[in-house]
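[step 3/7] fold_predict: job queued, chain A
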Amino acid sequence: MLQKIKLKLSPGRLDAVCSGLKNLGYDVPCIRYHKHNRSIMVIVAKKMLKKQLDNPTKAISISLEYHEADVLELFLRQFATYKDPHTARLMLMVADEINQKLA
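[step 4/7] structure written:
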């Protein structure tokens, strides 16, 4: 059994991640691999957006399954190129933290 990945996110980093997750519903994948990743990202998005609504001004701690953290890292690295430089930097910092914990 794989370990759970625990992330501690500041409000700024959580906002950056959630800004990308809010656009998740507009893309309809047609390739099986993308459908798989998107289905995992929907679960992760629900967790993250719920945490953001519950504690908008506090740092949060969230536990993700290994596969959820892996797909979130891929998503953040790909989506960061579409954001402003500050938000992209925060997204990449979270992706780097996830990468270190997955190794």
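[step 5/7] annotate
The beta strands are 5-9, 60-64.
The two ends are 16 Å apart (CA to CA).
exit 0
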